Structures are given as structure tokens and as C-alpha cells.
Amino acid sequence: MSQSEEILGVFAGALGLEPADVRFTGDATLASAYAVSDFAAASLAAAALAVRELMDVAGAVTVDRSLADRWFAAALTPLGWRLPSPWDAVAGDYATADGWIRLHTNAPRHKAAALGVLGVEADRDAVAAAVADRAGDELEAAVVRAGGGAAVMRSATEWSRHPQGSSIAAEPLVHLAEGGTGPQSAHWIPSRDRPLAGLRVLDLTRVIAGPVATRFLAGLGADVLRVDPPDWDEPAIVPEMTLGKRATRIDATAPVGRDALERLVAGADLVVHGYRPGALDALVSAERRRELRPGLVEVALDAYGWTGPWSGRRGFDSLVQMSSGIAEAGMRWAGAERPTPLPVQALDHATGYLAAAAAIVAVGRMRRDGVSTTSRVSLARTALELPPEGPVDVARLREPAVHSGSRIATPWGAAELLEPPVMVGDVRLEWQRGPVDLGSSEPRW
Length: 445
Known about the structure:
- By secondary structure, the protein is an alpha/beta fold.
- The chain is about 40% helix and about 20% strand.
- α2 (about 35-55) crosses α3 (about 65-75), α2 (about 35-55) runs parallel beside α16 and α9 (about 210-220) packs across α16.
- The longest helix has 24 residues, at about 345-370.
């Protein structure tokens, strides 16, 4: 059994799927202390298995490892224009008095929190000097208390002994909870090649796992409407993460915005949200969501899990890699002097495909049995399934194959979109809308 098949067995088991008749083709291309290529391919295969079960059809699932690697990095290539850097100038790894810490400062409020704790301006040298005098744990806690994002580099052993690490280890990879009953969707009219045609998906997610999940659903025909607050932007990844979707803005803290959000919930079949525990409930409670849309299917994802002292902590892929021992293992594997992350943000993408799979399983159950399901996944729990003994023989890795793509239009210029990395019988991922600007649509179905 290949490593891809072993990982898929774990993913499929967590979703209640049978990992049969799956073919992995192509070569691994990502050099790492971990089997990232196999991890990527297995997560895509899990989502494809959910599609096959939904359609109740025979046929092999085929995943191209090389293409999966490419999709985990970037599926869209600008033609004649450039994307901005995904990282703020201050974001990154800094040496502390006793180790390393990563500051995540891409969002203005997170940047302000870190700089406020350090008492310096937005100058990388000044930040480095201020961090060097601080103990890592103390600085991490101070930045988090101030509303920022930070993570000390820990080893996998240290993480397993940490209260949050041990709590996450006790969580299921995919938590599935039965909800209420409700009417069948009047909009979802599946066909053999577009299994989610017309399914209304309310996308309350950002950077990156949630948008990956809803992008996959859009590729199967779902009507995905993404909602962002008025001040949010992520220009480096918007073209990738709005593919196939519409996007609107709502200030849900204001009465008019909350009313608009409730109307969208009432018209949705599925809600995917990436809020920390309790944050969405503060806007529209779980009871209110069920009242607005009986039988609503929900998928929730977060960074650090759903139990333990850090369950409410904001986090991102790069921070979870620091906390969970991945960056430390990479540093030892590479013989480097500083934290070494995965070559792609694999926790985000793999968690996204697991979330998509959970969504597809849940809407299938709703259609079959009339019972709604709430699913939960997290980056930190997904990280535990990343095989720690990866392809250490870098020489055996292949150069990425040259794959054909299609030319698409975007608001920023033409781009090339890679061919899909996975196929399920007659079903082929296809996005009928190109990428869009955030806030370019009205808040209505």
C-alpha cells in the first residue's frame, strides 16, 4: 500500500467512506521532511470519494499527484500582471531570547497588536531587536491577548505534552453531529456531471482552508456566495479563492447587515464558516440559524481545534506549523538555522478538502434521510495526520510535469487555470464563473 493510500484510509474512515477503486498517478514533486505530496493527493481523493458516494455511481477516482501539488501551491497563473506578496513586510519568524516565534501580521489589526506589544514601529529590524529580548512563551501570550497572531516554535514532542496539543489529539479528525430535520432544497438539481448544481452555499470563510472547500463545491456546480466584512481584503489570494463564486460584503455588527446575513442564511442549503468557536453565534445564534432554515447543513473549521485552552485562539496555517512541531522538524531535516515550514500551506488545503468532503457527505445525507449534519474540522487536528517520515531522498523527486490549462478572464487580466487534479467517473471539476473582486455582488441569492 502506498503512502497516499494509507493517508486516504484515515481520511475516508473519518468521513465514513470506503476508499476503494482509487488511482494515484503522477509523481511527487514537493521536497519536505513530510510526505506532503501524498498528503495532498489523499485529501483530494477523500473529497472525490464523497462525490462518488453522493452520486451513487461506479467508477474510479483518479488523482494526479503532480497536479495536486500544483493546486496546493497555485492553480492560477497571471498572464501579463502580477499578484502582490502574500506576506506583510513585518510577518515572519524572529529569534527570541530562548528560541523562535512567528508573527502573523497580514491583517492590519493583527499587525497593530504585535507592534503595540513590542512598542516599535513597522520596521523589521526594530521588530527583530525587540523580539530578541523577550521569552517566546511570554511574547506569544502577550500578542494573542492583544488580539494578534503569534506562535512559538515547538517540537512535536513539546506539542504533544502541551495542554492544547493533548486536547487536539483526543478530537476526531472530522466531527459529525446530527442536527434537525427540514425540507429538501428547492434549488439543488443534481445532474450526472454537475452533482451540486444549484445547491446554495453561504461561504463565511477567509484565508485559506474554507475558501478551498467552497471553491471545490463551486467546481461541482454549487451556487457559492462569499461574504466578507467591509474592511477585509486579501489581494494576493483573492483570484485563487473566489474562483467560481460570487462575493459580497456585509457589516453583520450593524442591524441592517445582520438582517441581510439572516436573509442569506434563510435561503442557504449549506453554510461553511471559519469563525472561532462562538464568534458566529454572536452574530446569528445556532438556534436562530435553525429557525431561519430548518435542516440547514453546516461545516465549521478553525485553526487550533474545538476543545482545550486554545480553542478560541485565532490562527493560520503558518502559525499551526510552528506550534505543532512541523517547522521544527523541517529545520532539522533541512539542516537549517531557522524554522523551515512545508513547501506549501498544506494544512490549509488538506483541511479545506476534508471540509468539502464533509459537506458533500452531509448534503447527501440530508437529501437521502432528511437529517441535517454539523461537521467540524481544524488545521491542528489535520496536522496530526501528516506523515512525519517523508521523501528525504530529494533526488528521487521529479520536476513538476508541464500541465495544460485553460485561459480565463479575471478583473485583473487574463490568467491560466490548471486542469483539475482529480476526476470521478463522468464528473469533472469545472468552474463556470471566473474569479471576482470581493464585494462585487449584492447580498442576495
